Amino acid sequence: EAGVVQSPRYKIIEKKQPVAFWCNPISGHNTLYWYRQNLGQGPELLIRYENEEAVDDSQLPKDRFSAERLKGVDSTLKIQPAELGDSAVYLCASSLPSGSSYNEQFFGPGTRLTVL
Amino acid sequence: AQSVTQLGSHVSVSEGALVLLRCNYSSSVPPYLFWYVQYPNQGLQLLLKYTSAATLVKGINGFEAEFKKSETSFHLTKPSAHMSDAAEYFCAVRNQGGKLIFGQGTELSVKP
After folding, report:
1. Rounded to a whole number, what is the distance in Å from the CA of A14 to chain B's nearest CA?
2. Mean per-residue pLDDT for A78-107?
3. Do A102 and B9 touch (CB under 8 A)?
4. Residue B1 binned pLDDT confidence (cut-offs 50, 70, 90)
5. E strands within A25-110?
6. Structure confidence by residue, pLDDT tens digits, B58-68
7. Which of A11, A48, B81, B95 could form a disulfide with A56 if both were Cys (CB 3.0 to 4.6 A apart)?
């Protein structure tokens, strides 16, 4: 079974340019997460989807970041315009519905963004 | 609010030596605790999790962790390090909203 797929794996852009990341979760996983991992730190949740609904986007900088999961499967995370401080690894993860018990989150390999 | 603190951003051991990676948590409710491993240029992989069952949790690759409520700790151990264990290790706690809160990470180096 394929794991979580992310593309691109690496992206280098100049500041003020837009950028988009794509994620395809594990088949059957209703819950999808986007995390940002700064260098030398642990991942921090940006947004969580249950199917196509964003149920937790409190940490998403909404002035420049947006995300969508139109059909409840694939998801796209966009930054426009990018700033130097956005350089990080953007991780996507998926799981069965979280509900009241823990369901393991499976992580993709991430997209390493460098903003020059 | 839940949080985790990993003591030591970098740990170096010799091959065959004991691995001990420290994690202390803060939680107002019985916690769910996790250890993840991240190899270079890869995503995170779950090593093991504590969900209020047995306090000694065994995971993959020979790792285990012990939940100690009195010490608010969930340290990760492995009796004998292999070169392939070199990676970044993250401790995490699940908050009441279901969100994972990660520690800063500990980079494990294994010397031949």
Report:
1. 22
2. 87
3. no
4. confident
5. 31-37, 44-50, 53-56, 65-68, 75-79, 88-95, 106-107
6. 999 999 999 99
7. A48
